[in-house]
Amino acid sequence: MAEILKVLKGTKDILPQDINMWQFVEKKANEIFSTYGFKEIRTPIIEVTELFSRGVGDTTDIVNKEMYTFDKSDRSITLRPENTAGVVRSYIENGMSRLSAPVKLWYKGPMFRYERPQAGRQRQFHQVGVEMFGIKQATADAEVILAAVSFLKSLGLNDLDVEINSLGCPVCREDFKNRLKAVLKPYFEELCDDCKNRYEKNPLRLLDCKVDSCKKIFEKPEIQQVINSDFICDECNNHYTELKLYLDKMGIKYCENKLLVRGLDYYNRTVFEIKSNNLGSQNAVCGGGRYDNLVAQLGGEPTPAVGFAMGMERLISLMEKQESKKLDGYIVSNYTVDALIFAEELRNQGLSVEFDLTNKKFTKQLEKASKVAKYAFILGEDEVSNNQVSIKNLEQGTQIKVDRANCVKMLEL
Ligand code: HAM
Prior knowledge:
Layout: H1 19-35, E1 39-40, E2 46-48, H2 49-57, H3 61-65, E3 69-72, E4 75-79, H4 84-93, E5 103-112, E6 124-133, H5 138-154, E7 161-166, H6 170-184, H7 193-201, H8 212-218, H9 221-228, H10 234-249, E8 255-256, E9 268-275, E10 284-290, H11 294-297, E11 305-311, H12 312-318, E12 327-333, H13 336-348, E13 353-355, H14 362-372, E14 373-379, H15 381-386, E15 388-393, E16 399-403
Parallel strand pairs: 1-5, 7-8, 12-13, 12-14
Antiparallel strand pairs: 2-4, 3-4, 5-6, 6-11, 7-9, 9-10, 10-11, 14-15, 15-16
Helix pairs in contact: 1-5, 2-4, 5-10, 6-9
The structure holds histidyl-adenosine monophosphate (HAM).
C-alpha cells in the first residue's frame, strides 16, 4: 500500500463537522462590520517579501524568524504572516486615498507564521480583521474597539478583557527608549538572547518578553519606575485621554497595561489586545492599534490608520460548539426515478434534500432520515400513484399526506 501522507505540522484541516462554526463567524463578521460601514477586501496570500520587511518591520520576530519566503522568477515572495501590510499596499495601489475618509475595510483569511506550534498557535491560522484609514482623532480608535467588542458579543463572547496602552509617537518614544536602555544596561548580560538582540534594535519589545528570568529583571523598582513613568507627549496624552473617555462613555470596560507593546513595528499611540482567561498561554483573541506612519512608509501619502485582527481558531475554541445543521428533508422511497425528480423539485425551491442513492430497504431509509433530516418525505406506492407525499415530522413524530405541489407550504422550517 502507498504511504499515507499527513497534514503539515502546525496546520489543520477544517472538517465538515466543524464548518458551521466557521461559517457562523464569517457571517457575523460580515453582518457586524457592515453595520459600522466596513466593506470586505480580499488581497493575495502571496506578496513581495519587502512589503513585510518594510511594513511589519525587520526587527520583529515575524520578519526575522517566522516568514515562509521563497524565490520565483528572481523575486523574493512571502506567504502573508498578517494582513495589515497587504491592505495598506492595496489602499495605496488602488488610489483609495482619493475616497472620502474614513476608508473602512475588513478581511478574513489564512495567514502563515513559522512558529513553534502549540495550543492556540498554528503555522497556518486564520484572521478576521478591520482597518480604518484617514482619521487621526481618537474617535476612530474608539469605533474600531467598539466594532471588535460587538463582533465578539455577537459570537456569544462577553467575558473578555480589553487591555489598552499608548506607545506615544516616534518623538516621545525615543526618549523613553533611551531611558529604558540606560536602566536595563547593568542587567544586559542576564537578558535572554532575544532581548539582547532587541536591546539595540527595538528596546520597547523587551517589555513583552515571556522568559521568566527577563520578567524578574523588569520587576526591579528602578525599571518599574521607568516603565510606569508618563513618557508620552501632551498631544499623544490628549489622544489617549480622549480614547479612554469614549470607551468609558460607551461602557467598554478596559484595563491599562503599560507592558502592552505588541509584536509589530508599525504602531504608534493606541495599542490594544482582547484576552481570555480560557485560552492558556496564547490568550489574545484580538490585537490591534494605530499605525499613522505605515501608509507613508510604504510609499503612500501620509495617512493615519487604525485596525485590529483576531485569530479565528482562538475565537472558535472559545465558542460553544454548535450542532451541525440537519437537512430539511430526506426522501424515503423505493421509486428511484420519483425520488430523483422530487428531490430536484424541492431543491429548486431552496430546501436541502437528500435521498437514498442505493435503494436500500424502506425501514433502513427511514432510520437514516431520522438521523440526518428534520422531515422524511415518504413516496410509497399510494403516494406515487396519486402524485402525493407523506411528510413525517421527525422531531414530533406526526405525519400528514399532501399533494406534492403543496409540500413546501406545509413545512415549518
Ligand atoms: P497579531 O497580534 O500578530 O496582530 O495577530 C492578531 C491575532 O491573530 C492574535 O491576537 C491571535 O488571536 C491571532 N494569531 C496570531 N498568530 C497566531 C498563530 N500563530 N496561531 C493562531 N492565531 C494567531 C496582527 O496580525 C496585526 N496585523 C493586527 C492589526 C490589524 N493591527 C492593526 N491592524
